[in-house]
Amino acid sequence: MTRIVITAMIACGLSAGIGYLLLPILRALKAGQSIREVGPTWHNQKAGTPMMGGLMFIFTAVLCLLCSIPAMKDLSVFYTLALALCFGLVGFLDDFFKVKFKRNLGLTSLQKALLQMAVSAIYLYILYRSGIMTSQLYIPFVDVTVYIHPIAYIFFAMFVMVGCVNAVNLTDGVDGLCGSVTVPVMVFFAAVAVAMGRLDMALLPASMIGGLVGYLFYNWHPAKVFMGDTGSLFLGGLVCGLAFALDMPLVLVLVGLVYIVETLSVILQVGYFKITHGKRFFKMAPIHHHLELCGWSEWKIVIVACTVTAALCALSLLA
Predict the structure, then answer these.
(1) Average pLDDT, integer, range 94-115
(2) Would you list the DSSP string of the chain?
(3) The pLDDT value given to residue 43
(4) Alpha-carbon torsion, ordered 109, 106, 278, 168, to 10 deg
(5) Which of 67, 177, 248, 257 gives 20 to 30 Å between its CA and that of 266?
(6) What is the per-residue pLDDT across 107-116, written as a single tens digit (0 to 9) for each?
């Protein structure tokens, strides 16, 4: 347990230090964010803010785990880290094309979806073959386990993973939002891993807790850097990867409720727009932009979302 706490503390300082070195490099490379024309008009002042800040906590997680290898007994944690890195690579390619061609859209939706499905399928197969993941679906609170055919379960899991990754990605739209919401989620997974006796697995979310806090030094409003798709897809991969590595995917419904609400707000907005031939259900989607247009400050949105997530994570520990 002491090793886990120390890892989180070291990760915080390491992430902040990496940010101090990385920020001037991103500015020199002119790796600035392009702001979508359909977003809130006051977000235009954020144009040019360096992106790919997610490299801060990505490097931190990799370094922390590599340095911990001599004391580790269960190296399966690197399966989940590799998954997150693969998703982060997809995000990096997306960010790269945005910067290179000075546009807000990088890879096409189809390209990202195919890459994400391929990465998810490989990870799930490895977990299943290694015996880490079963095809028995545990339903929290009711203490019921449902057996599902392995092939059907993997397809279900792929759908959950791709949806989760993109939900986390959608949450990255307000300064500090995605990072702040993900901190209590990582605390939850670290606590669960410790309770299950998987202390080596707990090192990954622990390093991410510290890494995200260090990153938030630069991303809290007004943001000096954005995590970009590099960071948000990495976080999405880590969140869903940990859920399946700990064999409790349905817990994502609670601990990831903010991510889910963000996604549902977009689905509802698009569906309502098509059905009503041009009318809008929300003033703007995702829902954090709707709240901004309702007068909420970015600070308030982040604090409320983080508080709700922390409460749901605490509730989920009872499951």
Answers:
(1) 76
(2) -HHHHHHHHHHHHHHHHHHHHHHHHHHHTT-BPPPPTTS-GGGGGGTT-B--TTHHHHHHHHHHHHHHGGG-S-TTHHHHHHHHHHHHHHHHHHHHHHHHHTSS--S-HHHHHHHHHHHHHHHHHHHHHTTSS-SEEEETTTTEEEE--HHHHHHHHHHHHHHHHHHHHHHTTSTTHHHHHHHHHHHHHHHHHHHTT-HHHHHHHHHHHHHHHHHHHHHSSSPS---HHHHHHHHHHHHHHHHHHTT-GGGHHHHTHHHHHHHHHHHHHHHHHHHTTS--SSSSSSHHHHHHHTT--HHHHHHHHHHHHHHHHHHHTT-
(3) 59
(4) 70
(5) 248
(6) 778 888 899 9
Q: Determine the Cα–Cα distance for residues 165 and 97; give it in Å rounded to an integer.
A: 20
In the chain, the amino acid numbered 185 is V
Burial of 176: CB neighbours in 10 Å, binned 0-12, 13-18, 19+: buried
Tens of pLDDT, residues 191-226: 999 999 999 999 999 999 999 999 999 998 888 999
The CA-based dihedral angle spanning residues 6, 123, 139, 264, taken in that order and rounded to the nearest 10 degrees: 90
Q: Supply the pLDDT for residue 35.
A: 54
pLDDT of residue 41: 58
Residues 6+ apart with CB under 8 A from 118: none
pLDDT of 30 > 90? The answer is no
- Determine the Cα–Cα distance for residues 200 and 69; give it in Å rounded to an integer: 9
- Structure tokens belonging to residue 170: 């959608």
